[in-house]
């Protein structure tokens, strides 16, 4: 009877942890898809994102990466450092080159893609 | 087994109406004649739809129907792309930022759960040790 109770507790803990992992994966998928669409728009002629929109993207990326790092996900140090540096510059109201922002979006897409492939 | 492709528009209307209001319980799946139908759609997926009711309102029924078809076919990335492609860039970026907040909340819940179980294990461990010591003495 006690053994059965221990098994039930173990299964519950496992399901809770699996649930958290699965929800994280769903959010990473959404972030990847949104980043992919923004990359497509950067390459388009008529739907290019504005500087303000790209700055918003940088802030969102830094917040996402912060949490993923805490969760122990493998994010390249250079990409993470770039997100920190860019968001700090945005918060300090410094001017940032559009090319730099656009390049960052593409780096971010590659990072999410690697994170999704890593789980397969 | 029937699939989501066998469902008619009325079912989608009902599902979308349910998902876009506060009624969070899954609805029974019916076929065109109103009989119960076993479809390859999981409760988890219905919960996902309910959780994303605002998204359904934004994209409209036809796009959402296509979204369900892609999901039921295992093409979840293509399904998400279909939904998000219809949004303007500002809305997309806002969604992206909301997702970052959602991720932080998931992480916090994860940590709270771990802390709860650690505390439980410590309490139980302490009780077992004191019981063992008690029986020795």
What report would you give on this structure?
The complex is a heterodimer of chains A (120) and B (137). Chain A is mostly helical. Chain A starts with a helix and ends with a helix. Chain A contains 4 helices and no strands. The longest helix of chain A is centred in the first third of the chain and has 42 residues, at 2-43. In chain A, helix 2 (51-70) packs across helix 3 and helix 2 packs parallel to helix 4. Chain A is globular. Residues 12-18 of chain A have low confidence and may be disordered. Chain B is mainly alpha-helical and 137 residues long. Chain B has 6 helices and no strands. Chain B has helices at residues 9-19, 43-51, 53-59, 61-72, 76-85, 89-136. In chain B, helix 4 (61-72) packs antiparallel against helix 5 (76-85). Chain B is elongated and about 75 Å long.
The largest pleated sheet of chain A is described as: none
Determine the strand fraction of chain A and express it as a percent band: under 5%
Average pLDDT level of chain B? 72
* Secondary structure tally: strands of chain B: 0
Multimer state: heterodimer
Got a strand count of chain A?
0
Helical region count of chain B?
A: 6
- Indicate the mean pLDDT of chain A: 85
Order of helices and strands of chain A: HHHH
Biggest interface between chains: A-B, 34 and 26 residues
Shape of chain A: globular
Approximately how much beta-strand content do the residues of chain B carry?
under 5%
Radius of gyration of chain B: 22 Å
Query: Which sequence of SSEs, written as H and E, runs from N to C of chain B?
Result: HHHHHH
Q: What share of residues of chain B is helical? A: over 70%
Counting H and I runs of at least 4 residues, what is the number of helices of chain A?
A: 4
What is the global morphology of chain B? Answer: elongated
Mind summarizing the main beta sheet of chain B?
none
Helix content of chain A: over 70%
Compute the CA-based radius of gyration of chain A: 19 Å
